[in-house]
Amino acid sequence: MQLDDTIAAIVTGGASGLGEATARALRAHGVKVALFDMNVARGTEVAAEIGATFCEVNVTSEDSVDAGFAKARAANGQERILVNCAGTGNAIKTASRDKKTGEIKHFPLDAFNMIIQINLVGTFRCIAKSAAGMLSLDPLEDGERGAIINTASVAAEDGQMGQAAYSASKGGVVGMTLPIARDLMGEGIRVNTILPGIFNTPLMNAAPDAVKDALAMSVPFPKRLGKPEEYAQLALTMITNGYFNGEDVRLDGAIRMAPR
Question: Record's Pfam families (predicted)?
Answer without folding.
Answer: adh_short (PF00106)
